[in-house]
Each structure stands twice: as C-alpha cells, then as structure tokens.
Amino acid sequence: MTKQLFLLNITKAIIYVYKSNKYGNPMLRQGDTGDWIGTFEGHKGAVWGVALNPQATRAATGAADFNAKVWDAIKGEEVHSFQHKHIVKSVNFSTDSNHLCTGSNEKIVRIYDLNKPEEAPQIFSGHTSGIRHVAFFDNNSTLVSCADDKTLRVWDRNSGQEVKRLDFPATPSSMEVSKDGTIITTSHSNIVTFWNTKELTKIKEFTVPTQVNSASLHQDCSIFVCGGEDFKIYKFDYNTGEIESFKGHFGPVHCVRFSPDGELYASGSEDGTLRLWQTTVGKTYGLWRCVEQTPAIQENAAVINNKQEVPAN
Hints:
mainly beta, six-stranded mixed beta sheet, disordered C terminus
C-alpha cells in the first residue's frame, strides 16, 4: 500500500506521512531519536502536506479528501477541519500560530484565522495550476507559493495581491523559506537556487548530479542538503560548492529538512523510510554516540575530485 513518504517539518519532533492509495496517517516522532509518539487519524484520503507550529503544540495536515485539518499535537485530537474543493497539497502555520495557510489543486492560496475558524478564509488567486508549496514570511505580512504553472509568487496579505513573481523553465519541485526569513531555497530539474526574499534576486545556484525533489539550507548558511531521483542525499558546502553524497535510501528521495538546531537533517523516500542524518558526523547527539573512526572505516569513504561518497551506517 505504501508508495511515498513526505517529510515536511521538523521541530523537537518530526511529523511525517505515508502517502497511500487510500488513507494517509500522519505520524509524530521524537526528532533526535526517531521514537514514535503518536498517529493522527481522521483523513479519508492520501495526505500530501504536514506541518508543526513553532511551539510544537499544533499539527496541520492537507489531504486528497479535500480537507485541511489542525490537530492538538499533545493529545492527538482533531481541533479544526477546513473543507476545500480539491486536493490540499500544502499547509503551514504563521509564526504566532494564529493563522494557517493552505495551497491546493484549486490553484488558490487560503489563510484561515485559527481564532475565528468559522469565518471565511482570505483567498489569493493568480496561479494557473495546482499549488505545491505555500509559506508565510516577512513577519507573516506576506506569503510565498510555488505551483505547477512553473512560477513562484509573493502575495501581500493586506492587499491580497501578487507583488512579485519568478518564472522557472521547469516546475519547481520544492521551496523553503530560511529560518531568518532572508532566503528562499528552490529546486527545479537538477538545479538548486537561493533567492533574496526582499527583491527575489538570485544569490547562488548549484547544479546537482540528479533531478532534485527537495532541498534545505542550514540555518547558518554554511551547507545545504538535497535529494532526488538517484536515491542519494547530497550535502553541499554553500560557499565552495564541495559535494558529499550519502547512500542509504532504496528509492527516490522526496523531501529533506534540517532540524531547527541544525544538528541533524531528515530525509523521506519512496522506499517508505524516514532517515535521520547527522550534520556533523561522529558528534554525540540523541542516539548517536561519538566514537573514534578506525582506519578501516575511513577507507570505506571514496573521494572523487571534490565529491565524497559514503555509505549510511
């Protein structure tokens, strides 16, 4: 039944979902150990998007049953359910947790006031194809979204109008706003690009050895990770472009994200697994215990030009 695993958000806990043919069951796990905490049950269709609020007290999900739901992340109970007219692909909380934004195959971005859930949402129209990702940024005063129409658009919440736009040569497969809100990370085809959020000007761009499905920038902007169709995780030095690649998955990688403390990153794959990776290999953290590498272990890492490839432990 299981086809894909999408990982959308990491705090001290990880919320992720197995996308199945019939029902999606988002699960919550401890971020540093992977221990299972609980499962949110209620959707009647495959779940496409998940998120945790900054305080990790609320979870949100979007699904093929045309609903976006908000959950009590402590008790596991459903708090709100918002009906849409098509598949909900993306959900995200504002930084103050008072609002929820959603993006759907209706080509519409919505904002719901969680303190007044009965009120009609604010609607942003302009995309011409289904929306893949949507997020708040700039102190929640604006939204950014990307869609199958090969565009990224920035929306002003006060006017409800599109204020900036980027056009891509291919559909953007992922989008992430940096923790400090200054950089947007996007991927399309085999390219990862970093944009200044104020002017939407290109900061840097990197070519990856495979088609990229997801990319995530470390909070200190020293490295970024990405994954895609060749089953590997790639870690780039943001300044020099030096590459490391890591084997472990047995299917395409659909999502990668750093933890807020930057100590680890997680990857979700079509092989039905979620994997946790150390940012600094060998450092004591969670289940990882620092051990001195032996020469035999070091010999297992092959270096080709500026690219290092190691097997997963």
